[in-house]
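User: Please predict the structure of the protein below. I'd like the answer in structure-token form so I can feed it into my own downstream comparison script.

Assistant: Understood. Taking the following sequence of 162 residues as input:
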Amino acid sequence: MNSPVQPGPNGNSALKSQVSAEAPPAPSLPPGSVPPRRVLIVEDSPIVSERLVALINRERLGFIVSTAAEGHEALRIFRAERPEAVVLDIALPGLNGFDLLREFKQRQPGCVVIILTTYAYTEFRENAARLGADYFFSKAMEFEMVSKVLRTLVAPPRPLPS
């Protein structure tokens, strides 16, 4: 049904070209070690948040899952943990999902942001695309798509056909 938000004319969203100088360097790891994969769930409904955590854990994708129930907490966790992906609601206390999306993409342009919302209106979808969201799904119709997107992040690359 819904496909990934389409990138801008240069293949990237407009915010992906704005790399923030404020982002701290990634923590150093021992040689040969792989950093843990992290996903941040930003959702103010405890029921939905718990369901997302269960969905991600059931898939056994190897993500360390963090949760935040409001915008300022989400930004603090994002800055500290630098997740590979974020599942983001729009209607949140504190900073709303659009404010967070803007911040996340400015600080870490490569982070995959999945909007999962009850408000799957065309104008919200367009605003999310303009701000750099990678995916936009309806909670009512496409909840399971979150795990499918996260699975693509951990799938080994396929060799190109000869």
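That's the full token string. The longest helix spans residues 46-59.
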